[in-house]
Amino acid sequence: IETLHSQIRARGPDGEGIYRESSLALAHRRLAIIDTSVSANQPFFWGNRYVVVFNGEIYNYLELRVELEAEGFTFSTSSDTEVLIAAYAHWGQACQQRFNGMWAFVIWDRQSKHLFCSRDRFGVKPLYWAERDQQLFLASEPKQLRALGLGAQANRDELSRFLFSGIVGATSETFFAGIHSLLPGHNLTVAHNQPIRTNRWYSCSAASVDLQAIPSLLRDSVALRLRSDVPVGSCLSGGLDSSAVVMLASESLSGSSPNPLNCIHARSSDPEVDESSFASLVADTSGSRLLTLTPSADQFWDNLPEICRIQDEPFGSPSICMQYFVMQQARLAGCPVMLDGQGADEILLGYSKFMVLALSHAWHTGGIKLFLRTLINSWSANASLTPSTTLQYLVATLISPLRTARVSRRLSFLNLSLEPVRDLYDAVSAAASDCRRTQLLELFQTSLPALLRYEDRNSMAHSVEARLPFLDYRVVESALSLPVDSKIHNGWSKYPLRISGILPDAIAWRRSKLGFNAPERSWIGAYSREMLEQTLDSPLIAAISD
Known about the structure:
Layout: H1 2-6, E1 15-21, E2 24-30, E3 44-46, E4 50-58, H2 61-70, H3 80-91, H4 95-98, E5 101-109, E6 114-119, E7 128-132, E8 135-139, H5 142-146, H6 156-165, E9 180-181, E10 186-190, E11 197-200, H7 213-224, E12 232-235, H8 240-253, E13 262-266, H9 276-286, E14 289-293, H10 297-311, H11 319-332, E15 337-339, H12 344-348, H13 355-381, H14 387-398, H15 400-410, H16 419-430, H17 435-446, H18 448-460, E16 465-467, H19 473-481, H20 484-487, H21 495-498, H22 505-508, H23 520-536, H24 539-543
Parallel strand pairs: 12-13, 12-15, 13-14, 15-16
Antiparallel strand pairs: 1-2, 3-4, 4-5, 5-6, 6-10, 7-8, 7-9, 10-11
Helix pairs in contact: 2-3, 6-16, 7-8, 7-19, 8-9, 10-23, 11-18, 15-16
């Protein structure tokens, strides 16, 4: 247990604890956010029966505490951890449905010898597991399990999915053979002398809402995620999503805090992807304090080994490095909690590729006339959409065999099976004209899992907790229930956010979408030779290349 524990010191610099029984050991490192006193440290005990270790936050813990007190429960701390374990003692596994938060927790029932593990609805917080010699190992990061010699071999199926499609986290597999990720909205249970069982506890249900409900739900989500006994800041790229979060957070704090919200912006040295003017506009409008950093190519190269180490698994964009620098600056600025806009693109159809959904909807509801009007509007409202890119999205989304053939030719030097990625491409094509199915794929397989992993590793490496208001389950379920033409309207993506009144007009009606874009050409151009040399020296690359 000490080996597992020692690998993730940065995730919990404020406290630690270990609980042991004859057949079990639980360890925890604490990043103290709510009730920072030692009485809230973990492992946390409820009576003589339950022990919990918990990573994350239950944002509605105050409301749940009142409800439990009405049932006769008493509390000795002001922590959300104590509310969590009391909720489990009262409602059992059904407590998960009552939580609004992000979490990975493990509860040991000392009486029944039953282990219960839970991961939040969308997988904001990670939980990995592996088996060896009839022993179960649980961890927050794969590096903990690898330190025990688990996952020593590469998982070729996951390599295939990544190299042929760029997708990671689509299944419970990881890049390390034998190391599994507990899927979002799933439980893992081990009863006495019984095998490991996993089951899905959350399905994204449909909500009955109208377009006007999204801003009020988002406002409440931000207010909940400002609950903290330590300072809260926000990432600010200057795009719609982070700008909306900053505007709402500043509004919520204006009556309760004398200090402005600290916002961190990573400025690109490439003028083509420099969003600093938009970030400044949002900071000025909201009354926030803007801290801007401009990472250089040398900083990128010098920090790349450490970023690769903390990420554990491959990533495909230097923008992950920009996020790393933002979280590093957040900790230096004294903000151990940071809000961010992750998830908005998936729930409000923010990516350019989603124009396929709008075009399909137009074709089926209004024929060729509405299709052409939607096409022209999309080119007008979105700077990254052209006739050429639109055709590429249509072909790639609708015709799975063509996409597979193209990828196969382009990466013909790889000695890897195409089958793992073929299944993903087929699923994307099958859902191409079904907005809800497409968005569920994005949330649980093709987009969000990777983004959440990047953010969790980058933030926790600097002892920072990232909170994501757009992934409040009420916001997600409501957004997914809206029709396509409410989310992409007259060519404008994320339409509910644009017309919400939350954003300055110059932000609300931006045609460009960037989002902490790194100056990729200068960064990679400066060190392309060194990268190539290291790649060619890799035994793994040699093993999977012809």
